[in-house]
Amino acid sequence: MKVSTTIGKSVELTTGKLGRMVMDGVARFCSSAQAEPQAWHIPVDPLIDEELADALRAGCCRASRRSGVKASTPRASHP
Question: Which of 1, 2, 10, 57 could bridge 42 with an S-S bond, Cβ 3.0-4.6 Å?
Fold first, then answer.
């Protein structure tokens, strides 16, 4: 996905970059005192337009919450 920047150029956001944003957001959340991930935990390149950055943060925040739920769900024990 290509997104516009504040300097008029486009930046390619690959699935790898989006995944890194989610993982970095989870790391920030784990270092915070918050009860659940917040959009501000998600780092976005400062060159990306702020409105688009907010949308990216919201989407990545939902993904980080889902990954956190999976990580905190106990697995069934096997005898």
Answer: 57
Residue 19 has pLDDT above 80, yes or no: yes
Q: Where are the alpha helices (DSSP H) in 1-79?
A: 15-30, 50-72
Token digits of residue 6:
């504040």
Start-to-end CA distance of the chain, whole Å, equals 46
Question: Tens of pLDDT along 45-75?
Answer: 888 988 988 998 888 888 777 765 455 544 5
Buried b / exposed e across 8-47, counting CB within 10 Å, b at 16+?
Answer: eeeeebeeeeeeebbebbbebbeeeeeeebbbebbebeee
Contact call for residues 48 and 26 (beta carbons, < 8 A)? no
Alpha-carbon distance of 58 to 50, in angstroms, equals 12
Choice among 2-16, 29-43, 58-72 with the minimum mean pLDDT: 58-72
